[in-house]
TrEMBL record:
InterPro entries: Endo/exonu/phosph_ase_sf, Endo/exonuclease/phosphatase, GPI-anchor_lipid_remodeler. Keywords: Endonuclease, Hydrolase, Nuclease, Signal. It holds the Pfam family Exo_endo_phos. Residues 1-22 form the signal peptide. SUPFAM superfamilies: DNase I-like. Residues 33-257 form the Endonuclease/exonuclease/phosphatase domain. One of its GO terms (molecular function) is endonuclease activity. This is Endonuclease/exonuclease/phosphatase family protein.
Length: 267
């Protein structure tokens, strides 16, 4: 009888322990891609487009959300590459079956230049204009509220920070991260931030934000050479809401940047 009682107690203990573990493992996963696409042109072969290759990459990895930087919309530059003016985000949306959104940061070459988001299946989109205390090129962040398959909503942003002045980068990081903190949803923000991890702009990021590419993740440059390039493209996530499952820098030659692919799990 005592032996049977011990078995029952042991089974109850295992059930009680297993339930929170199962709940922890049952959180939905989300796959995110961030990519500076060099305005839709192969950086090595001038005049050659890269959109077909980027679309193929997206179809291969099937991210839920894609943030695109250095995006042209209906510019003379796209006409030079593709034969007529092209909205690069909408072209990628057509080639992948995603929803596309272009967030114009500035007028450029008879069209626009800024950020793009591709969302698989749904999305409510907005543009955030970023501060320029030191002057320079206008910058923006593209935002989307995205619904996961089980109905959970998250917020996601992609941006491209100032390449000229650290004062601007610090102010722009503050603007994006503050808006992210104000979200009532689990939030991820990403992009080409034009700074390295040792910079003051990087160190200025406070709060719950975790850099998906920080150690102990193996260091991998995202710009220039994979051997001795710079890590300037990032995925930042709210560490109180997400767990990092996977981080990769993809070795593909379609741009002067490498795409960053991250898989997160909702806690």
């Amino acid at each position: 009888m005592k032996f049977q009682f011990k078995i029952i107690v042991s089974l109850l203990f295992l059930i009680l322990v297993a339930q929170p573990l199962a709940a922890q493992k049952s959180g939905e996963t989300i796959k995110i891609l961030s990519y500076n696409i060099y305005h839709g042109e192969n950086p090595v072969n001038a005049g050659e487009g890269n959109i077909e290759q980027i679309a193929a990459l997206i179809r291969e990895f099937q991210p839920d959300l894609v943030a695109l930087q250095e995006v042209d919309s209906m510019t003379i530059r796209t006409a030079r590459v593709y034969g007529s003016k092209v909205d690069l985000v909408q072209k990628l949306a057509e080639l992948t079956g995603y929803l596309g959104y272009f967030a114009k940061a500035m007028d450029y070459a008879e069209g626009g230049y800024g950020e793009g988001i591709l969302a698989k299946g749904n999305g409510l989109f907005e543009t955030q204009n970023l501060p320029l205390p030191a002057g320079g090129e206008p910058r923006a962040a593209a935002w989307v509220t995205y619904t996961l398959p089980k109905g959970k909503e998250i917020a996601f942003a992609g941006t491209h920070l100032c390449h000229q002045f650290e004062e601007n980068r610090i102010a722009q990081v503050a603007a994006v991260s503050q808006r992210a903190e104000n979200q009532k949803l689990p939030t991820v923000w990403v992009g080409d931030l034009n700074f390295r991890p040792e910079s003051n702009a990087y160190k200025s990021i406070k709060g719950p934000w975790k850099d998906a590419g920080a150690l102990p993740t193996p260091y991998a440059p995202t710009y220039g050479s994979l051997e001795n390039g710079a890590r300037i493209d990032y995925v930042w996530f709210d560490s109180s809401k997400f767990t990092l499952l996977d981080y990769k820098v993809l070795n593909v030659p379609h741009s002067d940047h490498y795409p960053v692919l991250v898989t997160l799990q909702l806690k």
